[in-house]
Design a protein that fits this description.
Keywords: Signal
Organism: Xylanibacillus composti
Largest sheet: 6 strands, antiparallel
Protein name: Lipoprotein
Oligomer: single chain
Strand content: 15-25%
Radius of gyration: 53 Å
Number of helices: 5
């Protein structure tokens, strides 16, 4: 009886050892398969398509943002070139009626008038009393000419825009201002007249 007991115990022990060895081998097999799967997945993630247009040594990847290419040289020049306007612009008036009204005064000398308005004037004779006078053609177009020795106004030239403003200065026998006037075109085609009398009074009128 004792022998049979020892024999059975030996059989159970051997079976336990075989079972343990079998489980160990199966566990190692599963671990190897899992490692292989992880390695294959890692290899698949690291493989990326190579851009044939990408030169060697560049580190650009598919995830890099696109780089804007510069415009062709001819387009860049067009963008930086100012548009030329062939239309003729009216020349800015260097002296206005408002400036005349604010700065001119009865009794000013010729030197003071020249310092205020300038030296570009025509010497004329006032038709009413033969007094000495100056005429300023302000804002005249290139080549403008109005040859009149009297204090005549170029009404046609003002209306057509050949001259923007005409100013007449009258001097007394001592060379001091004793009256002045200005003629300027309006938008409706008429001409505004401004006359400063010897007493300093301003009168306005319109020539249709």
């Amino acid at each position: 009886m004792k022998k049979w007991t020892l024999l059975l115990a030996s059989i159970f022990a051997a079976a336990s050892i075989l079972s343990a060895c079998s489980g160990t081998n199966q566990g190692e097999q599963e671990l190897r398969e899992e490692d292989n799967a992880l390695q294959q997945e890692a290899d698949a993630n690291t493989e990326q398509p190579v851009d044939p247009n990408q030169s060697e040594g560049q580190g650009a990847s598919l995830n890099d943002p696109p780089v804007a290419e510069p415009l062709p040289e001819e387009h860049s020049e067009e963008g930086n070139t100012a548009v030329e306007d062939d239309s003729t612009e009216t020349a800015a008036i260097p002296f206005t009626v408002a400036q005349l009204d604010a700065n001119m005064a009865i009794g000013m000398t010729k030197e003071e008038v020249a310092a205020l308005i300038g030296d570009d004037y025509a010497e004329i004779t006032m038709a009413m009393d033969n007094a000495e006078g100056w005429r300023y053609d302000i804002g005249a177009v290139d080549g403008y000419s109005f040859d009149d020795v009297l204090d005549s106004v170029d009404l046609e030239g003002i209306k057509q825009g050949d001259v923007a403003l005409q100013i007449f200065i009258q001097f007394d026998s001592e060379g001091q201002v004793n009256g002045y006037s200005a003629y300027q075109a309006d938008e409706d085609g008429s001409i505004s007249v401004y006359q400063w009398l010897e007493n300093g009074e301003l009168k306005t009128d319109t020539i249709l």
